[in-house]
Amino acid sequence: DGGITQSPKYLFRKEGQNVTLSCEQNLNHDAMYWYRQDPGQGLRLIYYSQIVNDFQKGDIAEGYSVSREKKESFPLTVTSAQKNPTAFYLCASRSTPSSYNEQFFGPGTRLTVL
Amino acid sequence: AQSVTQPDIHITVSEGASLELRCNYSYGATPYLFWYVQSPGQGLQLLLKYFSGDTLVQGIKGFEAEFKRSQSSFNLRKPSVHWSDAAEYFCAVGSNDYKLSFGAGTTVTVRA
User: Do B34 and A102 touch (CB under 8 A)?
Assistant: First the structure.
């Protein structure tokens, strides 16, 4: 089955530690996205990538980093510089960078900083 | 920059009753509009989308939405709600650079 997988589902980290969230898709989509979701705030865009080896900052990129070395993978690192990292993180992908169609979402990773 | 407002944070509806969720957007050009649904602890699922053409759009699970340019609205409706429709609903508007801006969401509770 084609889809987007995110791992782990739950992640706990101590303050001051970096942590990497995994996002893999086998939909052969070119574009991939990372969102952060907090209660009552909807989804906010962290980073996005329209093509391999290229990515852009979204609205709340500070304290986060990404890489896009392979088409199917777009890992997100939450660094110790992110002041309030506890949140639900969603990865999404879209088939064609230059035409309008919907984003498909993974099941999400809930990150808790202890 | 585009933005989306969902005026209702929480709606409670009886099973079998009709449901309408409001969405107002701000965008200078022709908008690309989406409604997504999210069950607790899950990702988002697309219900329907509007790009152009007929302003009444049919989606999955019996949902429909109507685009009204004069009111900058894209309200979601369902004639008869089922208990399984309890979830959080997000309206989103797309920009020319293919990014989405989401509203804060509306939580729907269905009572028996």
Answer: yes
Q: How far apart are CA A9 and CA A88, in angstroms?
A: 10
Tell me the backbone φ, ψ of residue B70, rounded to 5 degrees: -65, -25
Q: Does B59 touch chain A (CB under 8 A)?
A: no
B99 touches chain A (CB under 8 A): yes
Q: Which residues of A touch B4 (CB under 8 A)?
A: 42
Specify which residues B110 forms β-bridges with: B13
Give the sign of the dihedral formed by CA B13, CA B16, CA B20, CA B21.
positive
**Is the separation of the CB atoms in A88 and A35 below 8 Å?**
no
What does the pLDDT look like over B24-64, one tens digit per residue? 999 877 789 999 999 988 999 999 999 888 899 999 999 99
Query: Exposed (0-12), middle (13-18) or buried (19+): which is A47, by Cβ within 10 Å?
Result: buried
